[in-house]
Design a protein that fits this description.
Blueprint: H1 21-28, E1 35-37, E2 42-48, H2 52-69, E3 74-78, E4 81-86, H3 96-110
Antiparallel strand pairs: 1-2, 2-4, 3-4
Helix pairs in contact: 2-3
């Protein structure tokens, strides 16, 4: 059997039924840190990071993957976390491609997140008060 992350992420054109909860269960076994939400119409995971910049780097890496595969998750970014939610809007629920994307996002999270995913930092502000 082909690993989930290596399967094609085929855009869903509609006209198919969303996965049932029992069908989702077999995919969840391959991405165990993800959970079903919204009555099984969304699969989501919260990724934790030591600071905001690394969470931002991860969100940027996910956005590049999303553009490459034309499968766009919802991202919630905050200090030390990035929450990713996937669904297939055309069918109002989950498709195999949502789980393929989840596995690929897991692979991103397990790799290095370097400054290539970040804009440059602004120059430091001069914190000294001007002499009067």
């Amino acid at each position: 059997m082909i690993a989930l992350a290596e399967r094609p992420c085929t855009p869903c054109r509609g006209g198919v039924n969303p996965l049932t909860p029992s069908e989702c269960a077999s995919y969840l076994a391959e991405v165990p840190d993800w959970e079903l939400r919204n009555e099984g119409r969304v699969v989501a995971r919260r990724f934790r990071f030591p600071d905001y910049r690394r969470a931002l780097a991860f969100a940027n890496a996910v956005s590049v993957l999303a553009e490459e595969t034309w499968h766009h998750p919802e991202l919630v970014l905050g200090f030390g976390f990035c929450e990713v939610s996937l669904t297939t809007r055309k069918i109002g629920g989950l498709h195999e491609s949502d789980f393929v994307m989840a596995a690929r996002i897991d692979a991103l999270a397990s790799g290095p997140l370097d400054s290539a995913w970040l804009p440059p930092l602004p120059p430091p502000k001069n914190m000294e008060r001007k002499a009067r």
